Structure formats: C-alpha cells, structure tokens
Amino acid sequence: MTAADTTSEYTTRWRALLLAAVAACAACGIVYELALLTLSTSLHGGGIVATSLIVAGYVAALGAGALLIKPLLGRAAITFIAVETVLGIIGGLSAAALYVTFAFIGGSLWVLVIGTALIGALVGAEVPLLMTLLQRGRTAGAADAGRVLANLNAADYLGALVGGLLWPFLLLPQLGMIRGAAATGVINLVAAAVVSLFLLRKIVSGRELTTALCVLAGALGLLVTLLIVADDVETTTRQRLYADPIVAYERSPYQEIVVTRRGTDTRLYLDGALQFSTRDEFRYTESLVYPALGEGAHSVLILGGGDGLAARELLRQPAIDNIVQVELDPAVVELARTTLRDINNDSLDDPRVQVVVDDAMTWLRRPEAVPAGGFDAVIVDLPDPDTPVLGRLYSTEFYALVTRALAPDGLMVVQAGSPFSTLNAFWRNVSTIESAGFAVTPYHVHVPTFGDWGFALARRGATPPTPTLPSDTPPLRFLDQQVLDAATVFSPDIGPRPMTPSTLTHPLIVEDMRLGYR
Fold first, then answer.
1. 3-state DSSP assignment of residue 353
2. For 433-480, what is each residue's pLDDT tens digit?
3. Which residues are within 8 A (CB) of 371 and not within 5 positions of it... i.e. 6 or more apart?
4. Which of 420, 435, 447, 421 is nearest to 499 (CA)?
5. Is 252 strand, coil or helix?
6. Catalytic residues
7. Strands 265-270 and 256-262
8. Which of 489, 493, 491, 481 minimizes the C-alpha distance to 287?
9. What single-letter DSSP state applies at residue 297?
10. From the centroid of its chain, how far is CA 252?
11. pTM assigned to the model
12. Are 203 and 194 in contact (CB under 8 A)?
C-alpha cells in the first residue's frame, strides 16, 4: 500500500468518524430542544403559544449561531471542541437550572428563553464548523462540496431522528427530565472527546489538545456529579413547591403525580395542579356524582376520575351494579389502589368496577365498548382544559361521542371549572355541551380548597334536567336537596352568557384557560 493509499484510507476513516460525531451532536441538540418543550409544559402549562415561541426562538437562534461563528471558522477544530463543551454543559444543566429556578424564585420563563437562545445558537454553530472540518484538505469543485454537504445533512437529520425517539421513549421515562438532560450532555461531551482524540490531534497543537481534554474532563465530572445527586436535587426542589410533606411521587409518561400529607389532610396534585384535598373533597365528589344518578340508575360510566373517589360514592348506591372507569394514566390507577386506597375505600378493586386504561375519546369511538342500551349515567371528571390535549375532551365532538354511550333517558354530568375564577371557560363549556344536542342545567357549590366550583348536568333533548338526589341516597356530609336547589342559582356577576362552542379545530376553551384566573 502506497503512502497516498494510506493517507486516503485515513482521510476516509477521519470523515466517517466525524460524520458519526455529527449524528451524535444532532441527536443531543434535538433532545435539548425537546427537554425545553417538556419543561415548558410541566412548569408553565405549555400550550400552543409557548410551544410556538420555543420552536421559533430555537430556529432563529440556529441561524444566529451560524452567522456568529463565521469569524472563527479559520480555527474550526479548537472552536468546535469549545462549542461542544459549552453546549454539553448548558444543555446538560438546563433541566436542573429551570427546575431549581422555578422552585426557589417562582418563575423560570427568563431561564427558559435564555436557555433556548444559547442552546439554539451553539447547535447552529456546529454545521459551519463541521462543514469546514469535512472540507479540510479538499481542492475539488462544487460537485464535491455538494456531496460533502449531502453527507453532513444526512448525518445531521439521522441524528435528529434518533434524538427525537430517545427522549420520549427512553430518556424521559427512564431517567426523568434532570437526569435525561444530564445524560445527553454527557453524550455530547464524549462525542467531542472522541473527535479531539482521534481526529483533531494532528490539527491542533499539543497544548491546545491537552487544555481541551482537561476542560472536557471537568465538564464531564460536573455532569456525572449531577447524575449522581439528581434524586436529591429533585426531591429537595420538588418539596419546596408544596406546603406539605410529599409522601408519593411519580413521573408517568403523561404527567407528574404528587401526593402530600399533613396530619389527616392528604392532597393529590397532577402537574402541580391540586386535584383534591381530603379536608373537603366530599363536597366536590358528592356534588359531581349524585345529581347524575336520577332514579334507578344501574350502570355508570366514569371518564377520568382515576383517583377512585367518584367510584367510591357510586358504590354506596346499592342499585348500581356496573361501573366502567376509563382512565388514561395507569400510574394514577396504581396510586388509587395503593396510597389512596384508604381514601377511596378500595373502590377500584370492587368487582362492580371495571377499570379501563385508555384515552376517553379513543374509548368512546369503539362501538363495542358500550353496552347495549348505553349507560344510565356518564360522569365526566377530567382535568381542566388548559392544554390542547385536554381541550379536545371539552369539545363539541367529544360530547357528541358521549351521546352514543348514554341511555336515551340517561344523564351526563361534567366538572366544568370555576364560574368565578374561569368565567368564560365555564360558560363556554356549557355552550359546547349544548351544541352536541344536550339540554344543560349548570350548578355550582363552594369547595374551600378550590373556591366556587361548577358542574353541568345534561340530558339529550330540549328539556334541561332538574338536579335532584335519588330517593335512596345514603347519608351525605354536604349535599342535600336544599343545597342542590340553591346551587342552580347564579349571581349576576357570574351569570349565564352566550359563548361560541369549543371544537377540535377551534379549541377556544384552551384559550380561555390560557388567559388565566381572575
């Protein structure tokens, strides 16, 4: 083999390894962006506006980074190592920084904006640097440059695909946000170290290489330390967000689940939003369940309500012999069967209750899922529609699907939010239910931990139902017929108002929630 052949083989391996590094760095870059989007949802509620701003800001930062790096292309090798080192540190620490800032300062939007800009700019600087390194020593023309660019883009997009799959299916569910981002930073730094050791040692000086490797080692040590102490950081930070001691925590693929307890008061939070407090949950649960039963209900469908509290009340009615509970998150069901079992009286393990783990809208679209004749009552106990995913469950189309599951003379009740705090969202929900062919009677009660809280009782047809308690209602702690009659009265400041229905294509109720509480 001639010297020219040896040089050509080395160059080929050099470029192949560099393209592999391109793919690894691209995977890390997309993971950082997905981590920012996930954090935006968890800490700030996400939404179309926040998502659009992060994506648009990230793309703009990519272009800015490509322009800003132009003066340094003459020293592409050492600059590439520096960029990857800084990117690994910032990206690896981004989740921890956002979470800690949110907990200790109360707002982390500015950290999110700065993180998006810095990470986007550093990722944008990679392509010009890598293109310069790949072109090193080449004297061919435009066609050869095109081939190099094609290889670079192919490696870049393939890496982005890998990163896009790793985050939701491996890193986030297995490691969580803080460890997932830190592990990605480690991969980023290892890729930079491999490039330094095997590819750039003949380009940069020995002193520069030694300095670069020492800095990379220090950065790696920092991120490895974060990986080790991540649980302590997360536990300490998370506890600061809650007034009471945390007794159970899980990050499911769908949400963050937290249970706190102080004395006899147990509270459930989903993504930081309070779902119930044992101090007064009976006010909410009784008001939700009993008006929907009418007289002689035997079968009931619960959409949501994975904590088992609605099922607990239904099981107190001796005539009810069939309850189907449809809950999206199996982690909530498991929590109801363990940590919350004393609160829900083991309701989800009762033989009369069939638990189905599925999306409510998906389940309703299966004709075989609904028994012949439909359910005598449908209880819709879902989280507030503050995201597009939840907004679809408060749409005309969703309520139209419910009509297929409801017996002709059956009743549906929907937790509709607060007519005081989220006035537009409450009445928009009422209008949306009406647009699906229901006649609606709204009512509201006072739940101290929630404030003024509203519900919508509905039946198919033109005659609104009159909320009444079944004649065989067991003794209740809060609700009686007199309270229920008063609950249908709304003062002028929160009274009925016409609203355009919310649909799948125009989820107006999500915008109502995005505007916040008054």
1. strand
2. 999 999 999 999 999 999 999 999 999 999 999 999 999 999 999 999
3. 299, 322
4. 435
5. coil
6. 381
7. antiparallel
8. 481
9. -
10. 10
11. 0.78
12. no
